[in-house]
Amino acid sequence: MPRITTSLLRKARTIDPFLPALLGPCRDLYAAQNELRWLHEHVEKVAKARRAKGDTLAEEALLRQLVVERASGKPLQYILGTEYFGDLEIRCRPGVLIPRSDTAASVTHIVGLLRKAHNLPPELRVLDLCTGTGCIPLLFQHELYSTRNDIDLRVLGVDVSHKALRLASYNLQKVRNTRQYVDKGRVRFLKADILLDPFADQTRGPLPLKTALNLKGQPPFWDILVSNPPYVSPSACWKTTTRSVRGFEPKLALVPPPSKPSQPDMVQGDEFYPRLLSIAQDVEAKIVLLEVADLEQALRVARCARDLDIFDGIEIWRDQPDSSPDDITDEDGFPVLGQGNARSVICWRGTGALWLGKVTAATSKGDDVQ
Amino acid sequence: MLATPWICRNCLLRLRNPLVRQQIRLQSTASTSEAIPLALLTRARTVASEHKELTKKLANGFDTRAAKKSGEYSPIVNALQDWDKANESVAELTTLIHESTTDPELRSLAADDLSETRTQLANASQSLITSLVPVHPFAHLPCLLEIRPGAGGLEAAIFAGDLFRMYQAFCNRNGLRTNLLKYENINGTTEAGIPLSEAILEVENVNSYGIFRCEAGVHRVQRVPATENKGRTHTSAVSVRVLPSLQENSAAEENFDDPESDYYIDVKEVKVEVMRASGAGGQHVNKTESAVRLTHLPTNTVVSMQDSRSQHKNKEKAWALLRSRIAQSRREKREEEVANMRRSVIGVAKMGRGDKVRTYNWGQQRVTDHRSGTTVHDLDDVMEGGPTLEQVMESVRNWLMERDVETLIAEEGEKK
């Protein structure tokens, strides 16, 4: 990483004495100014809340402390406690992955396609694996109910971490309190380990997904499967992640656990996808949306899905899948939509093609798949 | 010998030339409530004669277009008739009173009548004016006031802050609801009390654009700045832009999807850029950049927003701002074309940017508006947004109205 020039540091210092410290994690004067402004606003909000309780607060000292924390690399979202995910403000806590705006773009785009569909089932079931803060189920519900009222939506978020599930329930409460659709749709969260084989010997700890679904009286079949699983390989974790991600966000949510000792790096990064695809087959999902790291991984996942031979169409979406219709390129027989890095792989079969409005695409794609 | 005792020559001179000379600007444009601008009256007379011709034509045979036009003109003609009647009776009564041959009883009666007729005349002229003056197509909308310092460095930034407070106080005093869209001081923060680098204030009431339209332009300040240590007077400038606003409630009224509307923007023509971290993205980074930049490709208008942490909110705000800017530039362009066509006819100073429109002079405690030629001396009251400011704005609005009417007449003349 290039060093920050002295002139930039000096320039930052003339603007505000706190700015040079923030340049470390931000690397850019405008970003640092924005972060400082948000920290300011946060401190003022906290001070106001304290005053309302009759307390006092040393604002300057608190701001200094927050700036020092941020300079050490702690993510701003953990310091301020929230992050915006699409339209929603989602609460974040250390130990749970911070929602990413790229994920929000994919989810918003898929719901945008579903909203136009005429033949959705009366009860639409959505399964979100590795839900974390619960951001995907909440955004899914929010986006769908902003225009459609005729559907009963049922969303289940699954995670292995107890901390994440507690935070997800809290977020659900908070969104319910601020929005109107209180009794519309059902969002639930469930603890399960999707990597466990349901037929293996039971050990203590979280249950396999299938067992947990049975135990909690959840339906065995789901229409849509969404997942943002850990997908960073151990070497990429050291090379490409930023310091604040590496040092402060949970490894559990970033790097898949090694299944065998001394397995290749790339295989460990892809650990979750075969499991997710076989779960999709089990629950008879019509649409599957999986987030990936880059184009290489997207192609590996797409090939894996093609080899299963159950899907009618497979597409790769970039960071901004909705930008314009003429941004379609072709990689190894898979259409790649949008602009930016390759971000997710979407597969559909049966009526899923109708829901996504891909009927014509599916028929033309059918030849390629065979 | 003189009857009075000796007086020193200086005192005699002083008596002739008073020390404090009252500055009087003899401007014919300062209109009272009863007086009708000459331009308007001329137009009303033309309309009336045209109406007469139309009626004659209609008596001979029916013509849809003529009937429609006559229907449009009839309120103006009625208002003109009322005004003529009132004017005549006022003149008659005045001559009656001033004539020496009138007997006292009749004179007192006439005096009683006169005040009543005067109010009638005022009403008639008011209705005549409203029936004649074309209403600005955006006048009913809420508006955005954008204040930015111009030439003059730090002093301009300080005065920009003063102007911002002036408009805020004016809105508070007149019960106009405001909403601060953007406030940035020269350090790039939102803290008050530091010289201003940009402020955007939304006035949410209906008709606000009509009220504040006259404020657009370059405001000049002449004073000894706080930053000056040798006591010299500086002249600095602050630019104020007034745009019709389309946010929230008013947005529903305007149709964005209608390609005829000024606010219509083809989504394909706008490049949306979202700040993204370079490199891998996804789980590899937890970026906080939420800036959104919209570029309207045909006009190369760029709007960027980074105030909120939510990219979604930034995008909404940026779209609203882009819509108003485009609409304003479209309207300005249209007006420019029209104005170019008949600049020779009217000779009106251009009102958009460029020329200064008002001067605030601290040394003389005066505020002069260069368009209407009004000067007031209660500077403090103006800066507190008080009734004196209202008076200045009123005069400019009248001036604008007269210009509008002149334009209208020129337009009619060109058509013939």
UniProtKB/TrEMBL annotation, chain A:
Query: Could you say which residues form the signal peptide?
Result: none
Question: In the UniProt record, which is one GO cellular component term?
Answer: mitochondrion
Molecular function terms in GO for this entry? Answer: methyltransferase activity; nucleic acid binding
Task: Kindly list the biological process annotations in GO that this record carries.
Answer: methylation
Question: Record's CDD domains?
Answer: AdoMet_MTases
Q: Does the keyword Lipoprotein apply?
A: no
Q: Which UniProt keywords apply?
A: Methyltransferase, Transferase
Task: Supply the PROSITE patterns for this chain.
Answer: N6_MTASE
Protein name as it appears in the record? S-adenosyl-L-methionine-dependent methyltransferase
Provide the species name.
Cucurbitaria berberidis CBS 394.84
Automatic annotation (TrEMBL), chain B:
Gene3D superfamilies for the chain:
3.30.160.20, 3.30.70.1660, 6.10.140.1950
GO CC terms of this entry: mitochondrion
- List the keywords (alphabetical): Methylation, Protein biosynthesis
Question: Which residue numbers delimit the Prokaryotic-type class I peptide chain release factors domain?
Answer: 276-292
Molecular function terms in GO for this entry? Answer: translation release factor activity
Q: Which domain of life is it from?
A: Eukaryota
Among its keywords, does the record have Cytoplasm?
A: no
Q: Which PROSITE patterns match?
A: RF_PROK_I
For biological process, the GO terms are: mitochondrial translation
Family affiliation: Belongs to the prokaryotic/mitochondrial release factor family.
The protein's name: Release factor
